[in-house]
UniProtKB/TrEMBL annotation:
<protein>
    <recommendedName>
        <fullName>Citramalyl-CoA lyase, mitochondrial</fullName>
        <ecNumber>2.3.3.9</ecNumber>
        <ecNumber>3.1.2.30</ecNumber>
        <ecNumber>4.1.3.25</ecNumber>
    </recommendedName>
</protein>
<keyword id="KW-0460">Magnesium</keyword>
<dbReference type="InterPro" id="IPR040442">
    <property type="entry name" value="Pyrv_kinase-like_dom_sf"/>
</dbReference>
<dbReference type="InterPro" id="IPR040186">
    <property type="entry name" value="Citramalyl-CoA_lyase"/>
</dbReference>
<feature type="binding site">
    <location>
        <position position="168"/>
    </location>
    <ligand>
        <name>Mg(2+)</name>
    </ligand>
</feature>
<keyword id="KW-0378">Hydrolase</keyword>
<dbReference type="InterPro" id="IPR005000">
    <property type="entry name" value="Aldolase/citrate-lyase_domain"/>
</dbReference>
<dbReference type="InterPro" id="IPR015813">
    <property type="entry name" value="Pyrv/PenolPyrv_kinase-like_dom"/>
</dbReference>
<keyword id="KW-0479">Metal-binding</keyword>
<comment type="subunit">
    <text>Homotrimer.</text>
</comment>
<feature type="binding site">
    <location>
        <position position="168"/>
    </location>
    <ligand>
        <name>substrate</name>
    </ligand>
</feature>
<dbReference type="GO" id="GO:0047777">
    <property type="term" value="F:(S)-citramalyl-CoA lyase activity"/>
</dbReference>
<keyword id="KW-0456">Lyase</keyword>
<keyword id="KW-0809">Transit peptide</keyword>
<keyword id="KW-0007">Acetylation</keyword>
<dbReference type="GO" id="GO:0106064">
    <property type="term" value="P:regulation of cobalamin metabolic process"/>
</dbReference>
<comment type="similarity">
    <text>Belongs to the HpcH/HpaI aldolase family. Citrate lyase beta subunit-like subfamily.</text>
</comment>
Amino acid sequence: MRSTIAVDGFRKLTAMSRATVSQFAGVRDLVKYVPRRALLYIPGSNQKMLDKVPNIKADCVVLELEDGVAMTSKHLARQQVVKSVDRLMTNRHDLKCFELGIRVNSVSSGLIEEDVTELSKAEHLPNAFMVPKVDSSEELAAVFDVFRRHYGAKRVMDTNTRLVIWIESARGMLDMPRILASALNLHKNSGFFKLDAVVFGSDDYCADIGAQRSADGNELVWARQRFVACCKAFQLQAIDAVFIDLKDMGGLKKYSEEGHRWGFTGKQVIHPSQVEIVQNAFMPTAEKVEWATELVHAFSQHESQGKGAFQFRGQMIDRPLLLQALNIVQMVERVGQQS
Ligand SMILES: CCC(=O)SCCNC(=O)CCNC(=O)[C@H](O)C(C)(C)COP(=O)(O)OP(=O)(O)OC[C@H]1O[C@@H](n2cnc3c(N)ncnc32)[C@H](O)[C@@H]1OP(=O)(O)O
Ligand SMILES: O=CC(=O)O
Ligand SMILES: [Mg+2]
């Protein structure tokens, strides 16, 4: 299997290479890197699905309060998610996922206040709070305000809890650079949850622009490519669209591999049967892991001789290539620790 090959490739790293990689911890914080190849939604209203979380191997599990939950079940979902997050975070070392998040309702829905009021009754914070339909940077101030009022300043400003946001409208898409910069500044200036990943809400985006979904996905090409470029401009992870045809595993594989080639970091999934296909598609190949490991090592040697650019296997290498190689090494290191 592709992921296994890559993990084996990583295990061949020598102690010297590992030490070399750690010299670049200042460039990218290796310890805090969270793989998000597959981000699985679990509706908070479904207790049977919530009970499966400890054994789910998706990189990121999203306890869902938004569109996966009927309006008539929001209250029940909030109560079940509060109990689940306390139970799961108490035994967090037993979880198979890297990140347990909660997706609240959007600011524009008018439901976020009730979500946060209820969630703040939990003793534990999740690893990440997830906010959908962020259309403007002003909305982030409203998110900060509602969390600070209900959780208290200390709990939301002195924590490792991360922020993940969804871009799902034409307005959000056009304003992405301002939205992402504001979210990062909010963390820098106030200590509020740090933005770590951005998710493309393609179904809501299609509804917003009036596009019809097609088998070849042409209607989303521009948006997906702009989305990746904006995320990567701010060194943020970019999570690709949901694939809703639950029985079409070939189609899921094709779109996942395409997303990986285009620069996405991972993909949203809605069913456990989609997890492994997506994780494999977003795993670097064994050759790529070997290339990355050797490149990082070569970079370190050249840098110690005062050379920022050099030749490596016939290619010119400088800092951007080092960053790409570090992304690969960080991903494989975390996945290797899990398996
Ligand atoms: C597109 C825009 C978005 O906003 S996406 C995010 C919002 N949507 C969601 O949260 C939906 C998430 N997915 C689901 O609710 C389910 O997968 C849906 C699509 C309803 C299908 O469920 P169901 O009919 O039970 O499927 P199934 O019979 O094939 O299930 C087999 C076993 O797997 C389980 N399962 C299913 N989905 C999940 C899931 N997301 N998380 C955890 N477990 C899941 C089922 O409970 C079932 O378990 P068992 O075999 O009965 O023990
Ligand atoms: O929230 C996800 C979407 O596709 O919409
Ligand atoms: Mg959506």
